[in-house]
Amino acid sequence: MGTLYQESPNTGILDLKVTLQDSSLVFPTKETERKSMFLSNIDQVLNFPVQTVHFFPSHRSYPFKTVVEKLKSALCKLLVPYDFLAGRLKLNPQLGRLEFDCNAAGASFAVASSEFPLDQIGDLVYPNPAFRQLVQSFDKLGPEDQPLCAVQVTSFKCGGFAMGISTNHVAFDGISFKIFLQNLASQAFDDKPLAVLPCNDRGLLAARSPPSVTFPHHELLKLKLPIGEESGPPVFDCPPEDLNFRIFRLSSDHIASLKEKAKAGNTKARITGFNVVTTHIWRCKALSCDTGNNLDRISTILYAVDIRSRLQPPLPASYAGNAVLSTYAMAQCKELEEGPFSRLVEMVSEGNARMTAEYARSAIDWGELYKGFPHGEFLISSWWRLGFTEVEYPWGKPRYSCPLVYHRKDIILLFPDIDGLSSNGVNVLVALPAKEMEKFQALFHKLLA
Length: 449
What we know:
A hairpin with a 5-residue loop joins strand 8 (149-155) and strand 9 (161-168). The protein starts with a strand and ends with a helix. A 7-stranded mixed sheet has the order 1-11-18-17-15-12-13. The protein folds into 2 domains: 5-205, 2-Layer Sandwich (Chloramphenicol Acetyltransferase), CATH 3.30.559; 220-446, Chloramphenicol acetyltransferase-like domain (Chloramphenicol Acetyltransferase, 2-Layer Sandwich). The chain is 24% helix and 24% strand. The chain contains 9 helices and 18 strands. It has 449 residues and is α+β, with helices and mostly antiparallel strands. Pfam families: Transferase.
């Protein structure tokens, strides 16, 4: 069924020899209203950058200069319906909350070139640290000076190019970012309207008055710091240099086999690709931890659920903010080691089903009272089915789209094969200390058999 893991890229280049040719702020094509925009309690805890790279082959009808002109123009047009993207993030000291200052200060647009052709920079699926050269960084700017959106277009010697996009996670979740990409692509055409008109009313996810927490929220952790003073999720105990990282590939055959194993038990679970893959990873991760083989230890896995369609009334599908909440599954390591796979899949499925309209509202209200972060042993962050490679630009679809990856012991990434949604396989990126990685790898093979 193919190779299960890859430890290092085949021909990855550590320095893409990127030269920055131009960088400037770009502004909305029309005057926009100066205002402050409310941010929900989900948005509040996501103040960190999300960076993606989208690779395109060369196109005879669209030379690089034309691509740059069209993308720059498209971004300026989008800063009207997405007026907050031209603004800045600020802390309201009276409320102790982050909000968008829609001040038309501009987004950033850069043009660069690499000395390599696209087919020489290595396996695009494998997270190459050098890909960071394809995205702008604003580490030297203060929080209130940083653009909320930055686009860098980098040419390769072959005529292909990369579009690197950095946005603050406060602006988008994966689903709303996909819509942003569809709108960016639509505006790069000469005569197309917006693909989807974004819904920017984040008050739709405001806490109730008074807040009413009606469920225990084991997936959330109270913070002692005032909101806005924490730059991102708490980092676990291993600095990047102490972690190995590998990609484990599950083919469509592997996933079908896991589904059959789940069906073997008398289970009420929704047997989906995500649920069986998440369960398999949960077992491997929990049992690979160096905890002195304490099988009584409780392991908690977190994974995101889109709440747009679950609320009453439902959120508009075009909601432009963050509309995902973490749900969880909990079990003793003994059960993860000895219990039937079907029961574990059922636990993961129950976590998804737990996210009813009332549960989601309770979690949002919990954030109003306690200002906390999602909290568990680790989080599954899935880019598997977001479909970034399905977006059609004038010059075609991306060859591949991927997040920039940072080593995090507490986050395991799922992302698609090079064939995107046309492939049923999934790549699993894991970063662990060496001894734990050895255990994880052995379990990954053993429990797949």
